[in-house]
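Section 5.1 Outputs to date
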Amino acid sequence: MRTKHTAHSLPSFPIYSSAFVSANELILGGGGGQSRSGIKNKLRLYRVESDTVLELVDELELDKGEDAPMSMAGYPETKQLVCGVNSSAEALKTGENQNCRRFIVRDGNTLKFDAVEDDFQKVTVLSPDGGLLAAAGNKDLALLRFPSLDPVAIPIHLDKGEIYDATFSADTLVICTTVSLLVYSLPQQTTDGTTEKKAGKQKEVALPKLDLVKTVDRPTLPGQDGGSSFRSARYHPLDSKVLYTVVNAVPPRNRTKNSPRRAFVCKWNTEKWEVAKLRKVGDRGLTCFDVSANGKFLAFGSSDYTVGILDSQTLAPLLTILKAHEFPPTTLRFNPASNLLMSGSADNTVRIVTIPDHLAGASWSSWIIVIVTLLVILFAIIAQQMHQAF
């Protein structure tokens, strides 16, 4: 049975971020940014019942001059959302940027927010239990308590590389930079949400510094590329011994105009921090990546406009949508039930894919095994008939 997917046009709404706050409630962030394009920056709440249904429920227009919501993370347990919305250019010049904002979807579909000041924010990630938030710009990452947005530790500053992503396990935070993965141990939390070092003390205590326990270098890729960079990282939601990364290769210096910029998905063993599996998924760099909540699927968006789904165990391709958008995908998310995948782009479109129950068993390797088995049976029948004929 063919996998169903439907494109939805959203006029004058370039999309840059997304998050599900329930199995059928999707929030999209987009707009014209800080430019004077006349396209307003908004958060929109949609109801998604299937790949064919995308119903606008509510929208919140941001203040004039503010940036479009460039990153966000949702916590379905409480229908809360946190996103990066950088303040106006005038506010940035004064050093004030209320960029990290918390919203909640109530029964009346009211969106309210709190804010915390930090530098330009492009990465927003929640821990699996919804208790911690990583908010990062290009060089700095703040670890905050969620939903209070209180700082948990001293912010992390990078001297080398640029931050592109972050991911949590129960006891570690992995920061994905262009040049390495930085593995930090998380401070122990008490039952009231404070760190262990603060427990039992009434006076204000200096924030702890996170311990860097491992620096993981970029993997060796097959071929003659000029280098590579990490683009994304995600822990397996049900197994912290498994981590997935996107690695985009850099063409060699003697490249031509049509030289491929190959993209790879890597499956890591986090006990040894070694690559267990690696698969090339395209000849252009990947722009976005996600892992389904049930841990069965990996999804990616490519700069060649492709959206694809892989089997999380084997990295075998399960679905490829060529030219899913007119521009490269900017955001990509599975819903909490793992039966819908949405991708969005600056071309003002959203594509929703229905994930059928049989998809996990539909990899090419499975089909190859079936075909080989049928061929063996066919050849055995032919051989038997020929033997009887003589």
